[in-house]
Amino acid sequence: MSDRRVSVVILAGGRSSRFGRDKLAEQIDGRSLLSHAIDSVRPMATEVVVVTAPDAAPSVPPDVRLVHDEVGFEGPLAGARTGIEAASESIVVVVGGDMPDLVVAVLGSMVAALEGFDVVVLEVDGRPRPLPMVVRRGPALEAADRLLGHGERRLRALVETLATHIIGESTWRPLDPDGRTLRDIDTPADRA
Q1: Edge-to-edge, what's the strand order for the sheet holding 7-12?
Q2: 41: which residues sit within 8 A by CB, 6+ positions away?
Q3: CA separation for the pair 29, 46 (Å, rounded)
Q4: pLDDT greater than 70 at residue 43
Q5: CATH classification (class only), 7-184
Q6: pTM metric for this prediction
Q7: Which of 116, 118, 141, 154 is the most buried (most CB within 10 A)?
């Protein structure tokens, strides 16, 4: 685990189309899915920033900053850009609001691996996974602006564009044998 100051950006601006209703408000063990994501990153965060659609007003604790995309549903790269710009720290951890079981030890190892790189992601089944992602604020903002200006909407484009370190599955799995950090809820069946 790193002792560095980090902002955590939680992406919460999607349509929840596969879920059929607002999945981030969905209750799991008496708390919303978004609350689970917030609580899981608190131990490592200097600040938590939740990025949501322009009209949305999810319930968040008073110490969590809520920021809104300028235009709704422009994709995860636009949402990440909004959150990274709002972040006050130079190191930013980006996660999904639908990721209830993030393991802080894995995220901390990602922050520690950022030295000499602009982006750190995890390898899963031989491929880099875009979330969770750790970025350097300045280079990520510049790249996101450039990519969005060219019509790019995929978060993975940051991985493809910037100096990226991919942490191999054999390295991060001992910290999270069940892969809970990667769990995301896209459909009602994913809650099980």
Answers
A1: 65-68, 47-52, 7-12, 91-96, 127-136, 119-124, 164-167
A2: 8, 10, 48, 93, 95, 102, 104, 107
A3: 26
A4: yes
A5: alpha beta
A6: 0.91
A7: 118
